[in-house]
From TrEMBL:
The lineage of its organism: Bacteria, Pseudomonadati, Pseudomonadota, Betaproteobacteria, Nitrosomonadales. This is Protoheme IX farnesyltransferase. Its EC number is 2.5.1.141. It is found in: Cell membrane. The chain crosses the membrane at residues 24-43, 49-70, 91-112, 118-138, 145-164, 170-193, 214-235, 241-262, 274-294. It comes from Usitatibacter rugosus. PANTHER family: 4-HYDROXYBENZOATE SOLANESYLTRANSFERASE (PTHR43448:SF7), PROTOHEME IX FARNESYLTRANSFERASE, MITOCHONDRIAL (PTHR43448). GO terms for cellular component: plasma membrane. The gene is ctaB.
Amino acid sequence: MLQQTTTPTEGIGTQFWRLTKPRVVSLIVFTAVIGMLLAAPVLPPLDLVAYATVGIALVAGAAAAFNCLVEQRIDAVMARTRARPTVMGTITQTQILVMSGGVGGLGLAILWHAVNPLTMWLTLATFVGYAIIYTVILKPATPQNIVIGGASGAMPPVLGWAAITGDITFQPLLLFLIIFAWTPPHFWALALYRRKEYERAGLPMLPVTHGEAFTRLHLLFYTFILIATTLLPFATAMAGVFYVGCALVLDAVFLAYAIALWRRYSDALAKQTFAYSIFYLAMLFAALMIDHYLPLLGA
Ligand code: HEM
Ligand SMILES: CC(C)=CCC/C(C)=C/CC/C(C)=C/COP(=O)(O)OP(=O)(O)O
C-alpha cells in the first residue's frame, strides 16, 4: 500500500489533519449519523444532526491525534505507521496536545450547548475510553486490548441516538453490540498480516502472544458472534426484511472469509478480510438506514 509521507512543505494544519485518522473517523461518524437517523420516526431536526455530527467528529479526531501523540515511539518502528507526522513530520508534541485539546474541547462545547449534556458526557467518556483506557492502559498490557477497547469504537451510534432523543433505549445498544462484535475480526485480520511489526513494537496483540492459529480460531469465533448480533435488529422488529436480507448476504461473505482464513492462512487473504470488514460495516449500516426509510417511501 502506498503511504503518504510528510513533505518538508506540509503545514502544521495538514500534519494535524493526518493525525486525526480521517478515514477511520469518517466511518465512525457515519455510524453515528445512522444512529441519529434511526432515532427519529421520520427525519430528525437537521440542525441537530449537523451539530451532533460536527461535535462527534471533532472529538473523535482529537482522540485519534492524542493516540498518535502517545504512540510516537511505537509508530516509529512499524512500517504502517512510521510515515506519520509524529515520526517524520515537524509538528511538535505541544502543538498536537494544544490542537487536540482545542478541537476536542470545541466538539464537546458544541455537544453541550447545541445538542444535549447526555451526548456530551457520553462522548467525553468515549474519548477517555479510546485515548486513555485503550491507548495508554490496555494496548501495551493485554491481548484483550482491542476487545475491551472496542467498546469506544462501538459507542458512536449510541452517541447519535442520544443526540436526537436525549435518551438511550435498547435499539442503540444493539448497534453498539454489532460494532463491538465486529471489532475483533476487523482488527485481528490486520494483526495477522502485521504480526511481525507488532512483535517488533513490543505490543501484545493476539497473534504475537497466542500465535496465528489461535487468532484465526478466535477471528472465526467472533464472526459467529457478529452474525448473531446482526440478526438482533430484525429479531426485535427494529429493522425489517430489507435489512435482514442485506445482513445475511454480508454475513455469509464475512463467514466465508473467516472460514477460509481459519482453514488455510495467507497474508493476502488476511488483507482481503480486513478490507472486507470495512466494506461490511459501512454496508450493514447503510442497509439499516435504507430499511428505516423504505416504509416512508411506501415500499
Ligand atoms: C479498538 C478498535 C479498533 C482497532 C484496534 C482498529 C484497528 C485498525 C487499524 C490498526 C487500522 C489501520 C490499517 C492500516 O493502516 O492499514 C484500521 C483501519 C481502519 N479502521 Fe479500524 N480499528 C478499530 C475500530 C474501528 C472502528 C470502530 C471503525 C469504524 C466504525 C474502524 C474503521 C476503520 C477504517 C475505515 C479503517 C481504514 C482506514 C484507511 O483506509 O486508512 N475501526 N483499524
Ligand atoms: C467519538 C469518539 C471520541 C470516538 C473515539 C473512538 C475512536 C477514534 C476510535 C478509533 C479506533 C481506531 C482508530 C483504532 C485504531 O487502532 P489503534 O489506535 O491501535 O491503531 P494505530 O496503530 O493505527 O494507532
